[in-house]
Amino acid sequence: MPATIAAARAENSLFPIVLSIVAAAATGVLWAYANPIQLVPGVIQWRIFAFLPPLVGILLGWRSGFICGYLGTVVWSLLAGTFIPAHSLIVDGIMVGLTGLVPGLLINPAKQPLDRAALIKIAAICLGVGLLMVVAVSASLAYLGIFPFWWAVSYLGLSDIVPMLIGTPLLVVPALKILKSAHPSGFARF
To answer: Are residues 53 and 41 in contact, defined by beta-carbon separation less than 8 angstroms?
Structure first.
């Protein structure tokens, strides 16, 4: 019986990598086409799916969270027509990738229960990494002459931080239950 479980876990070792790439593609598409609330019409939308990179990071591991955020940003910027190589590939991609990486490093549901304290910690982590991301991305946009810094901070903060702060703690427990029911023998985090 233990050999069967070990074989099943070995088969599932690619699961988080593949799922993080699928989640990245879905994230980019959702950010490009499923943001109905326009904060600045045609430019900045309330990114209701901004919780996906931190959620993927917590559930599947910090590398998976980074992949989801980084590739999701690249896919989104290409689909939305806002791709700027230096900004999208370096600053925006890396900083949004960190919104998946940092929660995945600090929260591991296999090692700690997702109780009320953990959910509050997840919200605090999302707030902190979200603020860091918004400041860095806003500085890049200001440096490139696209938006004034404080203007970008306010609108990007509303766009990204609010959905991460609410969505990640709200959805992490049901998402974990779905993953556990799909893989009762467990899977490796990546």
So the answer is: no
pLDDT by residue (tens digit) across 101-116?
A: 999 999 999 999 999 9
Place of tokens 């603020």: 131
Confidence of residue 1 (pLDDT cuts 50, 70, 90): very low
184 pLDDT tier (thresholds 50, 70, 90): confident
User: What is d(CA 27, CA 49) in angstroms, rounded to the nearest whole number?
Assistant: 7
Give the C-alpha separation, 121 to 100, whole Å.
15
Q: Tokens 């209701």 appear where? A: 48
Contact in structure between 32 and 79 (CB atoms under 8 Å): yes
Cα(132)–Cα(70) distance, rounded to whole angstroms? 15
What's the one-letter identity of residue 162?
V
Find out whether 95 and 136 touch, Cβ atoms under 8 Å.
yes
CA dist., res. 154 & res. 59, Å (int): 29
